[in-house]
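Subject: complex prediction, re-run

Hi both,

The earlier run crashed halfway through, so I resubmitted it with identical inputs.
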Amino acid sequence: MTAVAVTLAPVRPAPPPPVPRTYRGLGERLAPYAYIAPFFIIFAVFGLFPFAFTFYVALFDWNPIGDQVFIGVDNFTRMFGDPRFWNAAGNTVSIWALSTIPQLLLALVLAHVLNHARLRFALFFRMSMLVPYVTSVAATAIVFVQLFDRDYGLLNWLLGLVGVQPVDFVQSTWGSHVLIATMVIWRWFGYTTLLYLASLQAVPRAIYEAAAIDGAGAWQRFRHITVPSLRPVIIFTVVTSTIGGLQIFTEPLLIATGAPLTCGAVRQCQTLTLFLYEQGFGQFEFGYGSAVGVALFVMVVAIAAVNYLLSSRIRADR
Amino acid sequence: MTLRPPLLLAVAALVLATSCTPGAGGGGGGDGKSFEFWSFAAINQKLSVDAYRAKRPDVEVKLTEVGTSVETAQALTTALAGGKVPDLVLIQGDNLPQFVQQPQNFVDLRTLGADDMAGDYLDWVWKQSVAKDGEVLGVPTDVGGMAVAYRTDLFAAAGLPTDPEAVSALWPTWDAFIETGKRYKQATGKAFTDNAATSVFYQAVNQVSEKYYSEDRKLVYETNPQVKAAFELGIKAATAGITAGQSSFESAWSAGMAQGQYAAVSAPSWMLNTIRSTAPDTNGKWNIAKIPGGSGNWGGSYLAIPKRAKNPQAAWDYIKEMQSPQGQLEHFTRVGALPSTPSVYQDPKLADAKDPFFSDAPTGKIYTDAVLGLKPFYIGPDSATIGQEFLNAITNVEQSGGDPATAWDDAVRNIKTAIGG
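This time it finished cleanly. Structure:
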């Protein structure tokens, strides 16, 4: 190769004379930037600026209709000593764990089943998985709250048939977490399943057939073929659902209609985003609300960093 | 996966709302022939607006029913911080102090002639909208005198008297009210009232001579024995097994109301409308008795004009016309909201008013009595937050199995966290 390069070098034509800097040339060089500008302008106005400004507001005691006083890191000191913040953080982690782990396991099994070669009406089953995902969260919440209602709910009626005392899902800590997690699972399992399924279809069917001929049972095929081939997409869904889990907002806002901003009398299901919203738009303490937003940002970045380490290790294993 | 936008949107909204300077720009500049009016939903404000349209056909009123009273206050705050403000806005009494603290956002109604009207209104109601330098920010539209609405059919079934006089005599005090609840529960096995937090505590705590602030506007909620006593009553009711454990205005509460699950509910004057609309089938099965513990007030609203309003004069004309003593009296005959102008309390239209939905109870007399005997107290900027934390503590004991012994300390600790004191 080097020989070719050497022999070619002398015959390369001299560079053309530089094009004069005309107006047209300038326009051509700027045109691409103009084409992509709409996105970046909108992003700067609605994404970048608010994002940076949040850090600024977090340093103030900021009354939207009154005074704005610079108080340094006082909002953060207050936040670290605020039991409501830690309660919201705990609730967020608990709801995330209750929703993500069962959801991913369920999706894994469903994807495996839907990938079965002899499944009839496969397209119908695959598409119907997406129905909860395209249903509005608010509509889902209204229906689930009624299903889980203490006095008039279908679920408690069924429990009553087998002699169980009515459970007050919304007012109890674990009950409200289960209720929210159920809604999250309901909404996202189909989406996750389709991600797994898409990835599974890239696995040659011959591998499954060969394994079956070698005497591998259904469980062994699932354990040794399905799961390993899905590893990258599993990591992806773990990360995205974790970031999503940190931002659960609509479901807790809608289930305790008497005290929506705290998700109940004792903040039993108030998540971090809901706490941010309560402080920002319920109490109108914009500074403190922004400080919570900054904390949330730090957590999301930390999780993204862990993800980066994990996925680069997986790449190294291969 | 589109999971980032919610965070971005929340932050963007937070920042958009902060990035505009409050109070920027003066008012005026509108055509003076129309104005925008923000009110709460479900209080039939439309009837008043229609009446005004009939009187002043040349003026266009754009009425927006924003949502609950709290949602309206939140929308107003956001608008004041940098959005398009209405020309006229209704503010509920509990939300008023946070706006009175920042008078620069509103038109001082004295500049439009409010001083001449001040004498028409209940003095303690008027004073709540006066800011620190004497600015008048709002005109009171109504007050919420308190009473108890009860189901005559359910009372009869439990062997309790049904005549309003006899029922009022059952409960001269809140302790007696709780005892009556126990009798009812024993006779029927069913819940007596909807919940302890709003039906007992919130009523009792509005019957005090001094609430969360002292007269010289210092926080005293922690040491005021009257607040503690009202709280203990709430806890007592919560643990007596006489409540259905349904928080007021939740969807299940409305369902319970429609199904006749509560024999007695606290009924400030504006609650009658709520009962009527959530449980239309119970027409004629209710009556109204006196509230235990004497008179008191819960609620009532004010009309205010934001500083940046385009048509302040048109909005003021509306206030003058519709909130005059006669205007409030007419509004009472339309929706039953109790006037804040005592000069009409003797008017037969009010004094002799009866409500057929509530077995022809003399609503006019019951509610004016409740308000006239009232001991006014100062409502401060943190009153709403403090009240909410106390309610939460009682609801926790009633519905989430909280420990009644530590409820007071928990509530006080939560209040300190919330108001940063």
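Strands of chain B lie at 34-40, 60-67, 88-92, 139-140, 148-151, 264-266, 286-289, 301-304.

- K.
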